[in-house]
Amino acid sequence: MPVDVRRVPEVQYATLEQQGDTAQLGIWAFLVNETIFFGALIFTYYLYRMTYPREFAAAAKDAVLWCGSLNFFILLTSSLTIVLAINAAAQDERPNRMVRWLLVTLILGVAFLGVKGYEYYLDFQDKVVPIVDFEVKPGEGSAGELFWIFYWVATGLHAIHLTVGIGLVLYMLLWPIRRGEIGPAYYAPLEVVGIYWSFVDTVWIFLFPAIYLVGRS
Amino acid sequence: MSTTTFDDTPRIEPTARPSYLTEENTVASWLFTRDHKRIALLFFASITFFFFVGGGAAALIRMNLATPEGLLQPSLYNRMFTMHGIIMVWFFLIPSIPTTFGNFFVPLMIGARDLAFPRVNLLSWYVFNLSGLVVLYALIMGAADTGWTFYTPLSTVYANGYVFAAAMAVFINGFSSIMTALNFIVTIHRLRAPGMTWMRLPLFVWAIYAVSVVMLTATPVLAMDTFLLAVERFIGIGLFDPRHGGDPLLWQHMFWFYSHPAVYIMILPAMGVVSEIIPCYARRPIFGYAGMTIALMAIAILSFFVWAHHMFVAGISIYAGVAFSLLTFFVAVPSAIKVFNWTVSLHKGRITFDAPMLYALGFVLLFTLGGVTGLMLATLAVDVSVHGTYFVIAHFHYIMVGATVSAFFGALHYWWPKMTGRLYPEMWARFAAILTYVGFNLTFFPQFVLGYLGMPRRSYTYPAEWQIWNVLSSAGASILAVAYLLPLLYLGWSIFRERKADANPWAATGLEWTTPSPPPTHNFERTPRVSRGPYNYDPENDRFITQEGTPHAR
Question: B40-241+250-553, what's its fold?
Fold first, then answer.
């Protein structure tokens, strides 16, 4: 086995540096695409929100504010911890510090999903699940159901993205990091995962006020 | 054309390295390949299959319309034109040139050993086939009957076909587009050979770059749109549902926000192909290279601001109508610049009418006709009168079939020797090219007349006095079918029987011709050093200079 697998670029690249640069550009281009994907959904939401301001405000009052806020805090913190992991990868030859921060990130990611799951349970209790179990509350009219469709689609897609992120971090821990491929000489893959993770976080920064805060006062 | 080279420039000797075709021969070596050239051929097989599936649906449509009473049940007719649209748009036209010739030639033309992300490239093929299986499932189970545009609330509430499966197929297909586009953008940014500056890129690479930008930024809107549609179809309530205050027109806005740029996704790569073929067969540098690149990017950007011209009669405000009409006229400017430049590139050239050139000239003529009728449709008052008639059908088939498919076949012949290492039979190819042109015009020109007379699209029947035009159109369609099947036969034959091609049979200047035919895995023995732009041809004599700066003569 060659010891220094991590120092050989793939055949289409001249240097590892070029390979790392290219990976970064790739993830940014992908995030352009993702931004427009979520952007289209959020655009739709505000369009309806402007059309039915009172109905939406009435429906949004049933969203569980403390769950959303707690998750906001958890996810922002996880973006910090993954950056600390990348920092550690760039500085330390030994992987200990990087692995520790990645584990914290993983735990925070899973915690987000746990809180989200509990919130979904509360939503079921509150009868705000269109088709399955939905009760029209006073003041929201029939447009209130549109809010809840958006809620389930948006938070569901976000949770899927976060699950992918958790999978990526797990993969980094179980494969490249365990084989010693990530270190100060080359840590672009971890950076790519970090950029993606921060994007998932950013989506929540837009979803959180849209769902939980607007029109609540 | 036979190739001889000057004594001072060494011939490209056949190397000891096997070509990408012969390197490994197991099935697994194809299914798990990371070589962009093999993946291009895999895509080629997939899209050829879907081309003939979609073509079969078109054949049924034209058979039905040969008589006013029709041949098919009305509901079957609805399903056939829907599946024809869905399969031709997403499973042939959009992937056609980028995934095959783009995949094969972008790395070769920029002097790279592969695309930036070979595994993503392979994954794109698998995702494409997955979406293909879903669309075939929808087709076999009974197909959708909404039209390829899936307008709500027809698609969400009233249609009784397999709309969910068809919409999911389109949704999954989008991921394949996005992966391919992302790969091209990153590759063109990062993997160009030394000296291959942006203004030395072949125009085909520019076109693929422009189309990739459009694909990457427009497809996610369609993805979200079809996702919401699928949700609504699946659970019975959704964001386009008027019973809950949803807006069905919002579907149309989001759909066309993708699908109008998608028209340019289908035409831009074809423009790139033609910009390669015309200089080579006119032995002249392309006229206005910089203008061509600016026009490509201008079309790509403007394509995002014209979507509502599909909705002039859908109840948008008159002010929006005026604005979108004006913006649509703007797109004509860069398109016209391109047509002008192709035409001027022929001036005082030494033109040989080989098959690729015939296809390319056919492209220019049919694109011009399709474009000019597009201007008529961009005019508000005219559109109100002919919207939803065969005039629109004829217009976009001139662009999509007349232009894009011609360019696809042009590219296929032009690059066939490089891809397979064999020449093709020239006389048969010229015959097919001319037959395509004749068959195409006979099929679709009568439809302009029918549309002008008022024949509505999507109708399985029509008044008897329009039969003559419909019979002409159906007759043309059968000629077109022969013209499209012919290359399958003689190109297939050429793989086994035709003469072997040398590295540069057309005496062309691009980097792809400096590799052996067919190229070895990883393309280049040494990274090429580029010293000049493409298209260094000289109409006065046989000399030409490759992008590496070495002079040759035919």
Answer: Cytochrome C Oxidase; Chain A (1.20.210)
